[in-house]
Write a structure and sequence with these properties.
heterodimer, A: mainly beta, five-stranded mixed sheet, 17 helices, 11% helix, B: mainly alpha, two-stranded antiparallel ribbon, 22 helices
């Protein structure tokens, strides 16, 4: 049996390896976990006959899993042992073992520390042990102030090369130490410590954890580094910072936390999609989403690719989010250890063609080693709709309507021409109850919305074999009427194993998530059928108890809509997501490691929309029941072999990496629509439709590449990093499939130069870095290089006389090729006062060419657009600043940390030869930002320019921007009417954390500038004020009535047609003008969280390792200079801001 | 050292192999999406060619004046329908045509989509080698494509005047093409239709497809009438009438599937969730919203002007016009709606056997009226009155007395209005081609505020203009 007294605890790992090697299949592997759990039981059966004490130690180690720590000299004096025990506890065994020995023992963690008998347990007085001759063996634990083990710390004798590394419990053992030597303890995350041995053989060290995150691990493409040594621009948010935030999608918790990363939620509501932009819009329209990688596995990179395809390719999801679901909806944010966003070329070029929009790397929590730990977290929350547009009450509303009829129509000759209200055009004045009042905004938008969350994870094991298993459940209701919700269940397991010689490493991981969502017709930002602008005296029920649909005829969308039949609509989506990951690496020779990562991702989404006869509403155009059933399946297999080499030669450390990617993705879609099956119970029965129609599609994408990286650093001062990648994608035609990408990054840690050490000691860290490189983007639809004819993609349309047609799906562009972005980045990182202050400033520029876009085509060609490469060059330049300060001394009882980041991004069209004769002649301009790709925002950038309300006529007046003497449509939607980009130009966040004893308080502010918001009266089809809907309380009494009035709002309009000169300014120009447009900033109190950790004394009594209670609030308040529309971020929303969430929870560990 | 090298060798070999594997173009080949085929394979099978033809008919039915939306819109633009508190047709009935609202004034995009499909057929079919696709089929399919292309250009030229004339699918060449003179467009229309007439048989087939020579011939008669080529119009009409393939139906049966005067009808392009599809007309919703409360207020009721146009005891008034059967408009007075098509997809009243309807695209009555006008314009007043009286007799009206030429022309136009109201934009195109639009429309109270003489042609919308710098806006806008 292996001896343990050689400084490493090998017995245990050997045993595990033997076990592992017997099993190859994964399932058996899991079984092995259970076997090993039994192995640790402390029931021992021992039979010794005159054996040496060390031999007895070995046997007990083998059976118990505990290890003995002892000086060999000390034990050599012990007596041989003889005894027999059956099913005895460890305590009994040890007691028996040490009877009649000149030794005593102490159990600490998984160790049994053996010492001389006359030494008290607590002190381990070394003088007693120091009687033996030097050199001695020194051992002990390195722990931090809180008692947590410092793993991987290097303990060495000063002036010598020999040393030992602490294990997972912080234990080290260093033989052959001179009595008077000095030990130097260092680790990436602690301040270095020097200790004189003075003959002691047990030296425990309490280390000070470094305050800065400079040496924390940063995940980069195919590897890790630290912030200190990184040559690229990477923003990192640790799991602790996002933990317990009441968000469903981790991206929501990242908003404002990372410089250079802009995150917006354009639609408020549960399960709503989140948009993420890294360093501005590099691409015009295709794929601005970053590449998402979870534990090294590239996940379906089209957020919502499933459901969005459901709309365009397989009919369905009309009630789901237009931009689909995020793949991160299936990940429990509490499972995440860290999120790293790669931004510059140096960091992203290793991902080549997919790196342009940045890379989002998510690392899940790893097993904690040693004793099995269980963490449990549960929370309960409430959601509230805030920022809801306040509408008029019945009195104000009816007054407005009467005024509208009194002010009347305007013909070419008259200013006041009253209109007679009729039952048809004014049921609110003539038919309905004049005193009824329903607060429709509240009715529609502000319902009780609880949130539940619970998650648990169990982890443990040794370095040789460890595991983590986690599960969670989450359910979040929306504040919208009819209680739509989002529900998620996740499970995750990861097993890590290493061979005894540390040459073979194996990682097996699985993540699964199930997401259920239910929708109502309008909780998704679907503005049609909205209820909150209903006339306030419209009643949902008639006096006889039946549903009221108003006069019925002439129903105006949103004006008096009765949503109650919609309660019977079922609209639900279920998405299963499975991610399997296997990772085997083997050290072929010293410094050379071969690795293969194989991953499999499967997502399947089923969407069902049932429109039973009970949902038939005379106000809707759908008059017959139907059931719509859409299935989307996505799966991908990715194989990535890699070779890596790392070597320290003198002061140079060189590491190299080479690998390849083979990715194959498949999508299968089917959609079936059962029309009018005769009974509502048959809406799921495909055979029952009258008729049943169906469509389907399968597509595939392949992606192959090779990549390499070479990094070198000299004396931790000069660092260079080079990457190369060659990518091939089936999305492009045979001539353009392959492209090369590469980058170079350099860094100089100048504070490691003696000049700075000697003269500028206050500067504890200083690094200059620069990078240059190219990345690409292949985010276009598949098959765009081929001219394809498509069978009907919709279960209803695309037939003539019942026969399906073959539609030219696209205008083929055989020359479509990669979009290429050249990125430059220069940064300086500074640390002051032992890195209590860390500052980072970065300037970047990216120049994109051949941008992949849907190039517009004049419709006379038969197509409106085609996938192609934009002939212009687009530039993004910006500054990023990050500041982290530890405001109080590290040993102060109160700790206060501040983190601030701000980013300024400028996007311009840099060059575009021949723009005058191109299709962009009227809408793009060199030197100016690109118009937003978002159609909602696009109309904000080129609206009519509002001048004033004409006091004589009450009509809004607009600027003649093209100076042709008349205000007409040529004054809008062209270059001349540009007012500025709607994409934020400045954004950032400020986090403060204050902790004292067990209390911790986080306050997080987030801000954005340069955004537009448009108040659209509720997003209705007719925007003119005065017709039969409730625009806003702000309108009451604030509109033009008679010549001479100077008012904020124009004259009222009843929807009774009149002269174009009167109608058009009110209905076609005013709503599309900047009169209702606000450009500005907002500051949001995004999150406040207070937590309290129970003190250790109490914890030990209740046998918990830790326990914490917390209360928090998300989206608490927003400040914006304009008053009408209270949350500029949710421009597309249903007249409400991001939902406020209050949450309270508890997290315990034992 | 040697040892180290040999140990590196496997690694380097593996890398080299990977590099080769990952760089092979062939490995990136993927199968086509299962719901798509290439145009090459489409033209290699009869089924594929039929699929393309179907798509061409879809564009034709959805986007042209023969289709679903245009008849109602054109009727509102002219003076056939009016709804005092209408929402859906408001811009049309007050002729509020601006570049901003231009997208709703079809048929620009749709017509060019149909033209693209037709061009695709005309380019692909000559080289198509498909089993079961005989030379005679080739000829007929080509003729159908030419007819669709000609009709699309006919709509375009009537709506916009000069329009880009594109006769290939070459997008690179087509995308920046400006307007072609109207004369050249008409020349192309005549050429296409004449060729189609030559290549199509005289035997009738299913009435939803262009499969006999009378369909292009009827369109051509209309084209000649619009161009003022009276003799040619008359001759084309005579060929159709003289063939005796079609007979006028009873007034009550004209719009039924069993009607004997149908030269061509339009089929559904969608599968509605309606028990009545396809037994009713897809276009009836805007014009006859019977029983659909959500459409009643927003549909176009017949204008008083049109109602006054009917003579006493006109069977068409009793059969094709109906008072709304709900008490929906107590304050607005009773409304009369077009009742040519009696059933509605939105209302699921079961249709009695024998009452199934379909949308008529060309019917014999129009051909008679074309010939009547062409004869009148050529001073063949007897010929004109004889044709006119065929229609009048069917409508239960007395024969007209002999009239002077101008009066005869007016009588034909009046008869056209009574016969063809709410069909295929007939009234609007009549006003435009006879240069009477300005006089008539500027005299109507609810139109006068907006009406300008240049509005006989439609504006192009802003997007269309901004994507092709060589396109000019229609004069006046």
């Amino acid at each position: 049996m292996q001896r343990t007294a050689n400084g490493k605890i090998l017995l245990y790992s050997k045993l595990k390896l033997l076990l592992i090697m017997k099993f190859t299949a994964i399932l058996i592997f899991v079984a092995c976990l259970q076997v090993s759990a039994r192995t640790y039981s402390q029931i021992l059966t021992l039979k010794f006959h005159n054996v040496k004490l060390e031999q007895a130690f070995s046997e007990i180690e083998k059976q118990s899993g505990y290890s003995f720590i002892y000086g060999r000299k000390l034990v050599s004096t012990a007596n041989p042992v003889s005894f027999e025990l059956k099913d005895a506890s460890l305590e009994t065994a040890l007691k028996t073992l040490f009877t009649n020995q000149p030794l005593s023992y102490k159990i600490s963690e998984k160790y049994i520390i053996v010492s001389g008998k006359n030494v008290t347990d607590s002190a381990l007085n070394v003088h007693q042990l120091a009687v033996v001759n030097p050199p001695i063996t020194v051992q002990g634990f390195i722990k931090d102030a809180k008692g947590n083990a410092v793993t991987g710390a290097y303990v060495k004798i000063k002036g010598m090369e020999t040393g030992a590394v602490t294990d997972d419990n912080g234990f080290y053992k260093l033989p052959n130490v001179n009595e008077n030597a000095i030990l130097v303890v260092s680790a990436v995350n602690i301040e270095p410590v020097e200790i004189r041995v003075n003959g002691k053989s047990v030296i425990n060290v309490t280390a000070t954890i470094k305050v800065s995150g400079l040496d924390e691990v940063q995940t980069i493409g195919y590897g890790t580094t630290t912030k200190r040594m990184n040559t690229g621009a990477v923003s990192t948010v640790k799991g602790a910072e996002i933990r317990d935030r009441p968000v469903a999608n981790v991206i929501q918790a990242l908003q404002g936390k990372m410089s250079g990363v802009s995150i917006t939620t354009p639609v408020s509501g549960v399960g709503s999609p989140v948009q993420m932009l890294v360093r501005g819009t590099n691409s015009i329209s295709s794929g601005v989403n970053p590449l998402i990688i979870i534990d090294g596995v590239i996940v379906n990179d089209i957020p919502g690719g499933l459901i969005i395809s459901g709309i365009t390719n397989a009919t369905g999801g009309s009630n789901t989010y237009a931009v689909g679901n995020s793949p991160l909806n299936y990940i429990n944010p509490n499972d995440i250890e860290s999120v790293d966003v790669l931004k510059d070329a140096d960091a992203t070029a290793i991902y080549g063609s997919r790196g342009t929009n940045g890379v989002l790397l998510i690392t899940t929590k790893k097993a904690s080693l040693g004793k099995t730990r269980v963490q449990f977290n549960t929370s309960y929350g409430w959601k509230q709709s805030i920022g809801v547009t306040k509408r008029m009450n019945t009195e104000q509303y009816l007054q407005m309507r009467k005024d509208a009829f009194a002010t009347g129509n305007m013909t070419a000759t008259s200013v006041i021409n009253p209109i007679t209200p009729t039952n048809q055009n004014a049921p609110d004045l003539l038919v309905w109850n004049q005193s009824a009042y329903t607060d429709y905004p509240k009715y529609e938008l502000n319902n009780a919305a609880p949130t539940y969350n619970g998650d648990i994870n169990i982890s443990g094991g040794t370095r040789a074999l460890n595991y983590i298993a986690a599960g969670s459940y989450y359910k979040m209701y929306d504040t919208y009427m009819f209680n739509p919700y989002q529900e998620r269940m996740t499970g995750r397991m990861q097993i890590n194993s290493s061979s005894a010689d540390n040459k073979l490493h194996l990682v097996l991981g699985s993540i699964f998530g199930i997401e259920n969502q239910t929708f109502t017709t309008t909780n998704l930002g679907n503005i049609l059928g909205t209820t909150n602008a209903n006339a306030p005296n419209f009643e949902l029920y008639k006096p006889d108890g039946s549903l009221n649909f108003g006069a019925g005829q002439g129903y105006i969308t949103g004006a008096y809509y009765n949503p109650l039949p919609n309660k019977n609509i079922t609209s639900k989506s279920k998405t299963d997501n499975l991610l399997l990951n296997g990772d085997i690496s083997y050290s072929i020779i010293k410094d050379l490691v071969a690795k293969v990562q194989i991953s499999y991702n499967s997502q399947s989404n089923g969407y069902h929309q049932l429109y039973p006869s009970t949902a038939v509403n005379v106000q809707n155009s759908i008059t017959l029941p139907y059931g719509l059933h859409t299935t989307n399946k996505f799966n991908s297999v990715n194989i990535e072999p890699q070779l890596s080499y790392a070597r320290q030669i003198s002061k140079a450390k060189i590491s190299a990496l080479a690998g390849a990617t083979f990715l194959d993705k498949k999508i299968e879609q089917t959609s079936v629509r059962v029309n009018n099956p005769g009974s509502d119970d048959l809406l799921y029965s495909f055979g029952s439709g009258n008729p049943t129609t169906a469509t389907s599609n399968n597509t595939e994408e392949k992606f192959h590449s090779v990549f390499a990286r070479l990094s070198a650093d000299w004396d931790k001062k000069y660092i260079a990093n080079f990457t190369f990648r060659r990518d091939g994608s089936s999305r492009f035609g045979p001539n353009n499939r392959y492209s090369n990408f590469g980058s170079a990054g350099l860094a100089w840690i100048f504070t490691n130069e003696s000049f700075f050490k000697d003269h500028l000691a206050f500067l504890s860290f200083g690094k200059l870095r620069a990078s240059y490189g190219t990345t690409g983007n292949n985010n276009i639809a598949d098959y765009q290089y081929l001219s394809l004819l498509q069978a009907p993609t919709n279960a209803v349309y695309g037939r003539y006389n019942g026969t399906p047609g073959l539609n030219p799906a696209n205008y083929a562009n055989p020359d479509v090729k990669w979009e290429t972005t050249t990125k430059q980045d220069i940064g300086i990182e500074l640390g002051f006062l032992k890195n209590r202050i860390l500052f980072n400033a970065t300037w970047y520029r990216s120049l994109s060419t051949d941008l992949l876009v849907q190039l517009p085509l004049p419709t006379q060609t038969g197509f409106a657009s085609y996938a192609g490469n934009f002939p212009g060059k687009v530039q993004n330049t910006g500054f990023e600043f990050d500041l982290t300060t530890h405001n109080l001394a590290p040993n102060n009882k109160v700790q206060w940390t501040t983190k601030f980041n701000i980013t300024n991004n400028k996007n311009i069209l840099k060059e575009f030869p021949g723009i005058e004769s191109s299709v962009y002649a009227l809408t793009y301009k060199v030197g100016r930002a690109l118009p937003s790709t978002n159609t909602y925002n696009a109309s904000m950038e080129m609206p009519f320019h509002f001048k004033q309300i004409d006091p004589a006529t009450g009509l809004p007046q607009f600027a003649d921007v093209n100076k042709d003497g008349i205000v007409n449509y040529n004054d809008a939607y062209t270059n001349a009417s540009w007012i500025g980009s709607a994409t934020p130009s400045l954004w950032g966040g400020l986090t403060n954390n204050i902790s004292y004893k067990g209390f911790s308080l986080d306050i997080f502010l987030q801000f954005s500038n340069g955004i537009f918001s448009k108040w659209n009266f509720g997003g209705l089809s007719q925007n003119a004020i005065g017709s039969i809907y409730n625009p806003s309380a702000d309108v009451a009494g604030n509109y033009w009535m008679q010549p001479g009035d100077v008012k904020k709002y124009p004259r009222l309009y009843t929807n009774v047609p009149g002269a174009a000169a009167y109608t058009n300014p009110l209905t076609q120009q005013y709503p599309f003008s900047d009169a209702l447009l606000y450009k500005g900033y907002y500051i949001r109190l995004k999150n406040v969280q207070l937590s309290y950790s129970l003190p250790a004394t109490l914890l030990s009594k209740i046998k918990f390792a830790s326990a914490l209670v917390y209360v928090g609030a998300e989206n608490i308040a927003v400040y914006t200079p304009q008053k009408l529309y209270k949350d500029p971020e949710t421009v597309l929303s249903r007249s409400a801001g991001l939902l406020r969430t209050l949450v309270t929870g508890i997290r315990i560990e034992f | 050292m040697k040892n180290i090298k040999s140990r590196f060798l496997p690694g380097i070999t593996i890398l080299f192999l990977l590099f080769t594997l990952a760089s092979c173009n062939k490995n990136l080949d993927i199968p086509l999406p299962t719901n798509s085929i290439t145009s090459v394979s489409a033209f290699s099978s009869k089924g594929g060619i039929d699929g393309l033809m179907t798509q061409m008919y879809i564009s034709f039915a959805d986007n042209l004046s023969a289709g679903v939306s245009m008849p109602g819109q054109a009727a509102a633009l002219a003076d056939d329908v009016y709804n005092p508190s209408s929402f859906l047709l408001q811009d049309y009935q007050v002729n509020n045509m601006t570049p901003l609202t231009a997208t709703s004034f079809i048929p620009w995009d749709g017509a060019y989509k149909a033209i693209y499909m037709a061009n695709m057929m005309l380019e692909g079919i000559p080289n198509a080698n498909a089993v079961g696709f005989a030379d005679t089929d080739k000829k007929q399919y080509m003729a159908a494509a030419k007819t669709v292309r000609a009709f699309a250009y006919f709509d375009l030229v009537r709506c916009y005047g000069d329009v880009p004339l594109l006769t290939s699918t070459n997008t690179e060449q087509n995308k920046l093409k400006g307007r072609t003179s109207k004369t050249d467009v008409y020349a192309q229309i005549e050429k296409d239709l004449t060729e189609a007439i030559t290549d199509l048989p005289a035997t009738l087939g299913a009435k939803y497809f262009i499969n006999n020579k009378y369909i292009p011939e009827a369109i051509l008669a209309n084209v000649y009438l619009t161009e003022g080529k009276w003799a040619a119009a008359e001759s084309a009409a005579t060929d159709i009438i003289g063939s005796n393939k079609y007979q006028l139906s009873n007034v009550a049966n004209v719009f039924l599937q069993t009607s004997t005067e149908t030269i061509m009808a339009i089929a559904y392009t969608t599968i509605f969730n309606s028990v009545n599809s396809p037994k009713t007309s897809p276009l009836s919703l805007l014009l006859w919203p019977a029983g659909s409360v959500s459409y009643e207020g927003i549909s176009g009721a017949l204008s008083p002007d049109l109602l006054n146009n009917f003579e006493k005891n006109d069977l068409r008034m009793t059969n094709w016009v109906k008072l709304s059967n709900t008490a929906a408009y107590p304050n607005d007075g009773n409304r009369m709606f077009s009742y040519k098509y009696k059933y509605n997809i939105a209302v699921n009243v079961p249709i009695p056997a024998g009452s199934e309807e379909e949308t008529k695209f060309i019917r014999l009555a129009e051909v008679y009226l074309i010939r009547a006008e062409a004869r009148a314009r050529q001073s063949n007043l007897d010929g004109a009155s004889s044709d006119l009286n065929v229609i009048r007799t069917r409508a239960g009206l007395p024969n007209i007395a002999s009239l002077a030429q101008a009066d005869m022309i007016n009588a034909v136009l009046k008869e056209r209005r009574a016969e063809l109201f709410c069909e295929n934009g007939s009234r609007w195109f009549d006003l435009v081609r006879t240069n009477t639009a300005n006089t008539v429309l500027s005299a109507i109270s609810y139109k006068s505020a907006n009406w300008k003489p240049y509005m006989v042609l439609f504006p192009l919308d802003q997007t269309t203009l901004s994507t092709n710098p060589n396109l000019t806006q229609t004069p006046g806008y």
